[in-house]
Each structure stands twice: as C-alpha cells, then as structure tokens.
Design a protein that fits this description.
With 417 residues, this protein is an alpha+beta fold. The protein has eleven helices and 24 strands. The strands form six sheets. It has a five-stranded mixed barrel with strand order 10-11-14-12-13. β5 and β6 (103-106) form a beta hairpin.
Length: 417
C-alpha cells in the first residue's frame, strides 16, 4: 500500500475527550475515528488490525470444532420475554418499529437466537457435542462509555456456543477451550500479560472464567497468584481471600483489562426454548450449554495499552497492519535514483509475500516521516536514502527494540519474512 493513497491522518496531539492510552494512540495514528461517545469508525489501518485479530480467532474456533454462522442483530421481544431478560438486561437497546407496534432488541448477546435455532433440529445424544460461533456486531446501551475501545456501545465480538449431552462433556470441552483462548492471546502478542481469572458464576455455576490482561490502563481489579499464575476477580475476593486453585493467600493486586470470558450456561437457555436431545434410552433431556466470548475491539485496545511507548504504538507482528514500513527519503540531488531503488524494493518485498506500507509521500520531511512511523508502530521500519543507495543497502529499525542497523536486501528479507 502506498501511503500517499492511504486514507488516514496522523495527529500530533491526543483528542481532549480521550483519556485512555488506546484511544489516544489509535486516533492519533489514524486507526480509528470517533463518531460519538462509545461509537468508532475503523479506518483502513484499524480495519487491517481487526481483520488480523479476527483471523487468529476464527482459526482457533475452527480448531475447537466450531462451525461458523452469522445470526441477526435484530432480535424479537418474544424470545427475550421467554428468558425473562427483556426487562432485566440493563444495557439492552429496545425500540418499536416505525410501521408497526412490534418491539425489537439490538443483540447484545445471542442466547435468545442460538437456543431456538438449535431447537429446530431433532438431536440425539450421538449428535452432541455441537458448537457454533460467529464474529458479529453487538450493541449495548452502556450508561458510561469509557476507556476508548474498552467500553463502547457498538462493538465486534466473537461468541461461540457449545451444546452437550452431559455436564461431564461440557466440562471436558470447557477445559479444551481454555487452551484455545491461551493460543489466541499468545498469537495476539499479550499472552505473557494475560491470566485466566476466576470470576462469579452468577446463576450458572460457582465460577465463570475471564481472561484479564494486566496493564495500568485497566478498568478492572484482579488479584494475581504468582504460585500458579492464575488470578481472582475483585468481585469474588471478598468471599475467600485465597487462590481458588491452589489455596495460596499470597495474592498481588493488579489493574487489568478483560479480553475474554467463558461460562457454563448449563440449562438456563435450554429450558425456556424446550431445547432437548434424545438419550440412548429414548428419553428426552435438556441440552447443556456453554458460551465463550471475545471482543475484538476490546482486544485491539488491550494490545495497544500493553504495547506502546512515548513515541506511539508497538504492534506485535501477527496483528500489525503491515510487517514493513518502507520510507523513501529522497533528496533534491538524486530523486530519480532513490525512487527507482525504493520502488523496486517495494515490489520485491511484496513478491515475497511481505505486507508493506510504502511512505512515498511528497513534500514530507524525514523528521515527520520518522515520527509517523513510530506513531503507527509497524514492526520494521526500512529507510532508503541517498546514503543507503550509495552502499546498495537499507537502514532497518526494529520498532520494539529500537535497534537500527544497515543491511543488504538479502539480510533484510531474512529479518522481515
């Protein structure tokens, strides 16, 4: 992608109405634009990151046996009345149709859709387990949106629902899903900072589990057990001031961002919709359910909160919008030669399957190009200038370490592939 053609605009100062690091940097670097409180547009750079996150999640959910579907955002009042949540779900967007008196909800979650959907199929114990997932827009009427992409009214979410013929089968699947979630956060570059966290199970079970990414910009409070490397959410620490897993009372308080959660729903959403299966004796029984969510925008925000410095964002390679930021620093003396060298390098990198953002902008000084590159945060910065062309080399900078060195094309490819 040529930067001269990219729809983006960097800003030297953070917007006055954004206080979180993720919002400040993502707006300044041209990844997102704020339409109103809690609602953002993903610009081309931001959408590339979201798509990378989406693909990481999709691959893991398919490995977990999930079949991808896409359910409607628009949901019926009738189904929400059946579960008793129409009047109790405090962030539910409710509205009446313009041409009719029918009332609808904009989906904040999809139990009221997936349960009756699966109930339309005649299932036996041999058909289970089953699992379905989607990556789709959700709406929640948050009373107080805050922290940039971390708490918003409209967001992209992956939700997977699993269906089982026994609690033992659910338990087995639930444990396997923990491994898939770990893989997602490892690939997204925050695995070392993200902890499986015990949280309230509510009406479902004794515990549910969250995945909390430790960072000073976090809006949650967790207590980390350094002995077994799990955490406890502050909402249940009052019940027992010890680690639920190993019993240790040496817990360290940390700020964190919830980047995912998993729940054992059991039969809470099976019963209202008569969602049953036939067991081996021909008896009809309630299907047992689990659900597993990850907010993509929230994960993107958490990645930025964890990976940044005073100059800007530092994207992990797997989710970066591009792998290489190629800068053309042509001089007035040898513009043609530098242009030819950089254009050729741009083509060669792309032919090797390397995603490149090529800063070919005219009338932009070297200092501004360097500042923009650091702000945008692509893993490798490659500079072509009169000095490098004379030596048939380029200047390579690792955004994470800050190390700069001169390399030839062969060594460049070795580093960035």
């Amino acid at each position: 992608m040529r930067q001269s053609q990219l729809f983006f605009n960097t800003k030297k100062k953070a917007p006055k109405d954004e206080v979180s690091i993720n919002a400040q940097l993502l707006v300044r670097a041209g990844f997102v634009d704020k339409l109103m409180a809690g609602v953002y547009t993903y610009l081309p750079l931001g959408l590339r990151v979201i798509k990378k996150i989406e693909e990481i999640i999709r691959k893991e959910m398919i490995k977990a046996g999930g079949q991808e579907i896409l359910m409607p955002v628009l949901q019926s009042k009738e189904n929400w009345m059946k579960t008793g949540r129409w009047d109790t779900y405090d962030t539910l967007f409710r509205f009446a149709g313009f041409y009719s008196k029918n009332e609808y909800a904009l989906g904040p979650t999809h139990e009221e859709v997936i349960s009756p959907l699966v109930g339309k199929f005649s299932l036996s114990y041999k058909d289970l387990p089953l699992s379905f997932f989607q990556i789709q827009t959700k709406f929640r009427d948050e009373k107080r949106v805050k922290s940039g992409l971390l708490r918003v009214k409209e967001f992209l979410m992956k939700d997977l629902y699993s269906f089982h013929n026994s609690e033992e089968d659910l338990d087995d699947y639930y444990e396997k899903m923990k491994g898939h979630y770990k893989n997602i956060f490892d690939q997204a570059g925050i695995g070392g900072k993200t902890y499986l966290t015990f949280a309230s199970g509510g009406t479902f079970s004794k515990y549910s589990h969250e995945y909390q990414a430790v960072t000073e910009g976090g809006e949650d409070k967790i207590f980390l057990c350094e002995k077994c490397k799990i955490a406890v959410n502050s909402e249940i620490i009052k019940e027992q001031n010890k680690c639920p897993q190993c019993g240790s009372k040496k817990l360290i308080e940390k700020k964190a961002i919830e980047v995912g959660n998993i729940f054992k729903l059991k039969t809470k959403y099976s019963t209202p919709f008569n969602l049953k299966f036939t067991d081996e004796k021909g008896k009809r029984k309630d299907i047992i359910m689990g659900c597993y969510g990850i907010g993509l925008g929230r994960l993107m925000g958490a990645i930025v909160e964890i990976n940044n410095d005073e100059k800007g964002i530092i994207w992990p390679r797997a989710v970066a919008p591009f792998a290489v930021h190629l800068l053309n620093l042509k001089s007035q003396i040898s513009n043609l030669k530098i242009n030819e060298y950089t254009d050729k390098l741009y083509q060669e990198l792309q032919e090797q399957g390397i995603e490149v953002l090529y800063d070919d902008r005219e009338n932009i000084g070297a200092g501004e190009k360097f500042a923009d590159a650091d702000l945008i945060g692509i893993p490798y910065r490659v500079v072509v200038s009169e000095k490098t062309v004379e030596r048939n080399m380029v200047e390579l900078k690792d955004r994470k370490t800050g190390k700069i060195k001169m390399v030839d094309k062969k060594e460049l490819l070795k580093h960035v592939k």
